[in-house]
Design a protein that fits this description.
The chain has 143 residues and is an alpha+beta fold. The protein has 3 helices and 6 strands. The protein is globular and about 40 Å long.
Length: 143
């Protein structure tokens, strides 16, 4: 989770996120909902790259802790990645960054067809701890 993501996450934070997420066109941020009652249990979205990297988008996602280790992240990543390639014809590559040590997130990406590409050493600081980031990517079929 990036530092910009509020913690603790309050109802007011959710309202702000919905306002921001629905203000762009096309919309790049979505809720992950339980299929039985549409309760929001997480989020998934894209960030566009620009200039010479315009054919790449970065995917990000989160799930409420009570929904971890149930295959939900893998399913959401897989479906959303396919949708991304369908909706954004110029995109050849989707990439994701995982903080080193977040093995569950890395496994979810691998199960969704992403490949480990690089380790960026000591590139971020989260809660006072300098960490490395693992980069995963998925390519449009044929690239």
């Amino acid at each position: 989770m990036r530092n910009a993501f509020p913690h603790p996450y309050r109802v007011e934070d959710a309202a702000e996120w919905i306002s921001v997420a629905t203000s762009t066109s096309p919309i790049h941020d979505y809720a992950i909902c339980r299929p039985d009652d549409n309760t929001v249990i997480g989020g998934i979205g894209l960030k566009s790259k620009d200039d010479v990297r315009y054919r790449t988008m970065q995917i990000g996602y989160w799930l409420g802790e009570e929904h971890w280790r149930q295959g939900i992240a893998k399913e959401a990543i897989s479906v959303f990645s396919g949708w991304t390639f369908e909706q954004f014809k110029h995109v050849l590559r989707i990439e994701a960054e995982v903080y080193e040590g977040n093995d569950s997130s890395a496994r979810a990406l691998e199960k969704a067809g992403y490949t480990f590409e690089a380790k960026n050493r000591n590139v971020i600081e989260k809660m006072g701890v300098v960490r490395s980031v693992l980069v995963y990517c998925k390519f449009r079929h044929g690239y």
